């Protein structure tokens, strides 16, 4: 006669077998005091993982965790007035600024300035075709080492009032542009930041 066992019955059976085996092993293999030690423990307890009481409130333990706990929750100090409440005014203007700067890379006078400063390369590097004259130090550099500089500084774009001047300077004619080597351009930028 076969009878299907319920889940609870199966679990109880498994438990019984496990306990029995644990006792047998303890009795057979381990002599003396060790035997008692093993028998003292129930196999079920040994196998179970440490219980975690999920209902208990979270308490930070380390100093770092305590510090994090005492910190004030992050609040938006700057009002997010743009893009449906997602962007601050500064991030919005920064987005326009970087977009215009990227656009200026395709400004034709930029290319014209580069072409005016270049000559055919005659050195030992077989891969190089052109070299460019730095307007500041007078060195001849590879195309990858030059940058086009605005003689009149472009300035900032922080409000819409800055926009006309910013665009005027950014998209200036080739007379307002010059080629500089990377070092000279870096030095000029540093000077601009200081003064
Ligand atoms: Zn230079």
Which secondary structure elements does this structure contain, and how are they paired or packed?
Elements: H1 7-29, H2 32-40, H3 43-47, H4 63-70, H5 89-104, H6 108-116, E1 118-120, E2 130-133, E3 140-141, E4 146-150, H7 163-170, E5 177-181, H8 182-194
Antiparallel strand pairs: 1-2, 2-3, 4-5
Helix pairs in contact: 1-2
The site of zinc ion (ZN) has 8 residues, from strand 5 and helix 8.
Write structural notes for this entry.
With 195 residues, the chain is mainly α. The protein folds into 2 domains: 9-41; 91-194, no CATH class. 47% of the residues lie in helices and 10% in strands. It contains 8 helices and 5 strands; from the N terminus they run ααααααββββαβα. It has helices at residues 7-29, 32-40, 43-47, 63-70, 89-104, 108-116, 163-170, 182-194; strands spanning 118-120, 130-133, 140-141, 146-150, 177-181. Strand 2 and strand 3 form a beta hairpin. Helix 1 (7-29) packs antiparallel against helix 2 (32-40). The longest helix has 23 residues, at 7-29. It is elongated, with a radius of gyration of 38 Å. Residues 23-32 and 34-38 have low confidence and may be disordered. It binds zinc ion (ZN). Zinc ion is lined by residues 134, 136-137, 139, 180-181, 183-184.
